[in-house]
Amino acid sequence: MKIKVFATFREICGLKDWEIPHRANLTVRDVLQQIIDQYPPMKEELFAEDGQLLPFVHVFVNGKNIIHGNGLDTILDEKDQLALFPPVGGGGQ
Question: What is the pTM of this model?
């Protein structure tokens, strides 16, 4: 399955997209853990100390935000595309 990262996540990972092997019952949580295993600084960028996804971090599967489905427990298909967007700053005067 394909992973895409944006903005500061790209800087941390050093790439904008890559493929990971798919396995049965693979969840969004599993994929995020694989990303953290490969890029440890992503842990503090994605999760709070209680293991919850940080506010304003957006995870999309095939263009749909996981909050509108089963969240981190969303089961992924080998043809799915997961996209990670960090919080966006700005808007100040």
Answer: 0.90
